[in-house]
From TrEMBL:
Residues 124-222 form the OmpR/PhoB-type domain. Residues 124-222 bind DNA. It holds the Pfam family Response_reg. One of its GO terms (cellular component) is cytosol. Keywords: DNA-binding, Phosphoprotein, Transcription, Transcription regulation, Two-component regulatory system. GO terms for biological process: regulation of DNA-templated transcription. The modification 4-aspartylphosphate is found at residue 51. PANTHER family: REGULATOR OF RPOS. One of its GO terms (molecular function) is phosphorelay response regulator activity. It comes from Candidatus Falkowbacteria bacterium RIFOXYA2_FULL_47_19. Residues 2-116 form the Response regulatory domain. This is DNA-binding response regulator.
Length: 237
């Protein structure tokens, strides 16, 4: 589990980082809103702790931008004062929870656990684009009732794209998500993997789901139907 802490006050950052590492979380830190936004967009964190008062870009703006860009990572907002206004602004911007400073570390950990539990439920929700389904709980992929066997990289690529149906996944986004943070697109590895996926997912079917967005990247979309996500039983708790 990797958590991003966005907070400019070094003392607080150190305190949170040290405490969370003792709870066996991996912690990444950003010291201003701009850096926080960039890191959150590039990496896939399990959770973000986001202070409101930040240099360059405040926490509310960071949160809004992340949600606009379809980054759905759970966010706990830190507010300096216990004012209804700050809490409402934070939640309106798309934060999942908030904590008023100063807070007890135990409370932060309890909130993190609660959000991660909720997230786990979401992550076990079956994904569907057209007649293609992907079950994150079992890693089973079916198209039109027929099971598709994927390598682990192909699976991760398909999972990544199916979580953004109809949205462009740039080569940079795909590269950094599948091959890591320092990915440089100096090879055609992404195109090669997309062609593997196409062979398995689209070949032999009437409608194509994987589309090339010229000069930018790829997207998955069922152009003949509305896109749904099926909720399985675990989501009804
Ligand atoms: Ca601050």
């Amino acid at each position: 589990m990797t958590i991003l802490v966005v907070e400019d006050e070094v003392k607080i950052t150190r305190f949170i980082k040290k405490g969370l590492e003792m709870e066996h979380y991996t912690v990444d830190v950003a010291y201003d809103g701009k850096e926080g936004l960039e890191k959150a967009e590039i990496n896939s964190y399990d959770l973000i702790i986001l202070d409101i008062m930040l240099p360059k870009l405040d926490g509310i703006e960071v949160c809004k931008k992340l949600r606009e860009n379809k980054v759905e990572t759970p966010i706990i907002m830190l507010t300096a004062r216990d004012t209804v206004d700050d809490r409402v602004r934070g939640l309106d911007a798309g934060a999942d929870d908030y904590l008023v400073k100063p807070f007890a570390f135990g409370e932060l950990v309890a909130r993190i656990r609660a959000l991660l539990r909720r997230e786990k439920t979401i992550k076990t929700t079956k994904l569907q684009v057209g007649d293609l389904t992907l079950d994150p709980a079992t890693h089973e992929v079916f198209r039109g009732g027929k099971e598709i066997q994927l390598s682990s990289k192909e699976y991760r690529l398909l999972d990544y794209m199916m979580r953004r149906p109809g949205l462009v996944c740039t080569r940079t986004m795909i590269g950094e998500h599948i091959w890591g943070y320092n990915f440089t697109d100096d090879s055609n590895v992404i195109d090669v993997y997309i062609s593997y996926l196409r062979r398995k997912v689209d070949s032999g079917f009437k409608s194509r789901l994987i589309h090339t967005v010229r000069d930018v990247g790829y997207k998955i979309q069922d152009k003949s139907q509305k896109i749904n996500s099926i909720k399985n039983g675990t989501d009804k708790q």
